[in-house]
Amino acid sequence: MKLNSCPLIKFVAGGDVDSRTPLWFALLQMPTLNSAYRRYFSGIKKADCLLAAKTRNSHFMRIILEPAVPRRRPDLTSFLHKPLEHYRDILKLLQTILNNAKVIDDEYPALAKVVQEMQV
Question: What SUPFAM superfamilies does the database record attribute to this sequence (predicted)?
Fold first, then answer.
């Protein structure tokens, strides 16, 4: 992949991806983002089951517990669920912004579309 073929790099560098705003850029990237999260969501149940099965194995438990995980660090289950928490947090923040935005704002249509795409 050429460096200049990446939409984000073009956007940050001032190239004309869609020279409106970062929100329009986010809208352009929604299919990619949704695809990645759908893939993650479709595998989380299987990952939880696999982790539950592995935790019954003493050798596996020794590997993940030695050295001890500091209390403030997430455990393996929390780590597996972090992307889900992130997605929910981002959606909640965008919904709050949308609820406080005026329909006449230039960004409103793009923001509404991003929120709609994330809710599907």
Answer: DBL homology domain (DH-domain)
Q: Which two tokens stand for residue 69?
A: 């995980």
Q: Is residue 113 in some structural domain?
A: yes
Domain that residue 38 falls in: 20-119
Residue-wise pLDDT for 25-35, tens only, equals 777 788 888 88
15 in a domain, yes or no? no
Dihedral sign of CA atoms 75, 81, 85, 90 in order = positive
- Between CA 101 and CA 95 the distance in angstroms is 10
Is the whole model's pTM more than 0.90, yes or no?
A: no
Residue 49 lies in a domain: yes
User: Bigger pLDDT: 12 or 55?
Assistant: 55
